[in-house]
Amino acid sequence: MGTNQHALDPVTIESLLREMVDRDAVARFPEPEFRLKQHSSYDRRSVSPDEPEGWFANHDHNRDETDRNFIRMEENGGQREWVLMEHEGPGAIVRTWMPFRDVPEDSLIRFYFDGSSEPGLEGNVCTLLNGSGLFPYPFAHPSLLSAVSFFPIPFAKRCKVTVTKQPFFFQFTFRAYATGTPIETFTLADFEAAKPLVEEVGRRLLGPQSTGTGQNLGFDGKLATGQEVPLDLPTGGAAIRELSLKLGDYSDPGITRSVMLKMEFDGKETVWCPGGDFFGTGIGLNPFQGWYRTVSEDGTMSCRWVMPYRESGRIALVNLGDEPVDVQLNAVVGDWTWDERSMYFHAAWRGQYPVPTRPFSDWNYVTLKGRGVYVGDTLTVMNPVETWWGEGDEKIWVDGEAFPSIFGTGTEDYYGYSWGGVSADFYEHPFHAQPRAHAYNKHNRKTTNERNTKGYNTETRTRSLDTIPFGTSLQLDMEVWHWAECDMAYGVGTYWYADAATTSNREPDPAGAVKLLLCPMRPVPE
After folding, report:
1. What's the rounded Cα separation, in Å, for the pair 259 and 274?
2. What digits encode the pLDDT tens for the residues 47-68?
C-alpha cells in the first residue's frame, strides 16, 4: 500500500459513516488505501490445503475450556479475559458477527484502543452488537440467531477486543491501513457528536435511493428464444446509476436463471450473469430490500451499483430459455468524471452440477488478477436432502498471501446469520439477506421448529465499508461442507470493480446455466 498519507483528511467515525452510503466511492480504488482482515474462531487445525484433514476441520468454536480458537487468555485487574482480535497499526473495525444462542448473558465485550489498559468501549457481548445497545438498527441488528454490527470503530495505533466469559463463535472484520494513515480513535464523545449523522445514514440505508440523476433509457417488449436485445448507452464519460429489470411472468422460477444480463464498457464485456443471480433473488421471485439492490413484490428487480465508463457502454439481455419472455429493462445514466482511481463494474457467474459433498472441498467463487475491489456475491444452492448443507468456511486470499487473511466459520456466518439448519427462514438487512430457504421467503415465513434446508436456498451479501481491495490478486473459495453425502448444485453471482487490465477466471457459460436448469433438482413451475 502506498499513499501520501499526510495529504489526506483523517479517518473518523463521521467520515466512515459518510463513506458507508457513498456509492460513488465504491467505484474508485480506496484512498487512503487499506486491506481487509478478519480475526475469527476458525479451527486452528486448518493450516494448509496440503493437509486436508486439518484444512476442512470444523471445530471452529470455543465450546469448553480445552478449545483454543482465539488469540490468548490474559488477566486484567484480577479478571480473566479472552482476546479475540488484536491488530497493531491504524485501522477500523467495520463488521462484527457473534451468535447469541448459547452465549453467557453476563459476558462483557471490551475494546482497548492504542495500548490503553482501560477499555474505550464496553458493553454486553450481545446487546452491544444487536441493535438494542449503543449502536442502533440498522447498523447493528439481530439476524437469525446472530448479532451483527456494521458500525465503524476506528483506531489510530492499535485495537484489542476481549470478552469476559468463554467465547463461542466470533468474527471481527477490520480495515488495516498503512502506517502513518491519520485516524481519530473511537471515543464515546465522538459517537455522541455523530448522532445526527448516524440517524441520517440509518434513514438512507433503510430507504435506499439511486445516487444522482440522469437520462432514462430502456427496452419494453418480448424477448424470443435465443434472442439478444442490446441497449446502447450515451457516449462520453458517464455512469449507470440505476438499473432495473422486470420479467413478465415468474410462475416458472427458472426464468431468473435463463434470462442473462450482459454489459460492455469501453469495448470490454465486464458483466455476464443470470438476472436472478445479479439482482440477488436467486431462483424465482424472492422479494427483499438491500442498500444496493431491491427485488420488489411486483417483479421489478433493481440495483443501484454505480457503473462508470469513459467513452461507451452497452447493456444486453439474452433469453436462453425455450419460451419467449416479456421484459422491461430500464437504465438511468448520469455524469461521471473518470480519474486514475475509477474502476469498471464486473459481475460474473459460475454454476456446477453435480457438486459432490465427499470428499470435502473448496469451491471457487472467483479468482482475479490485477487491481480492484470485491463488493459482493449471491449464492444459490440446490440441496437434495433436508440436512444442513452450509458448514463450509469462506477462505479469501489477497495479493498472493500464503494463508487467507479472511478465514470464516461457516457459510451462514459469512451471510450474516447462524445455525443454518435451524435458521431456514427469510431475513433481510441493507448489506445481507436470505431471500429464500427451503420453502420460505418474505411472503411465506417459517412458523414451526423444523430443520429442513431441502430445495433452493439463496444467500446474498453486498459490501460497503467491508469491501475487499486487492492490488495484484484475489481468490475467494467457499468450503463444500455438508452433513450428508450427496450431490448438490451450486450457482454463484460475484460482483467487483476493477481496472481494465484486471482479469478473472470466469467466462460466459450459457451451456452451464441451461444445464443447471435441467438438473434433477430443477425448479418446478407453480
Report:
1. 6
2. 999 999 999 999 999 988 888 9
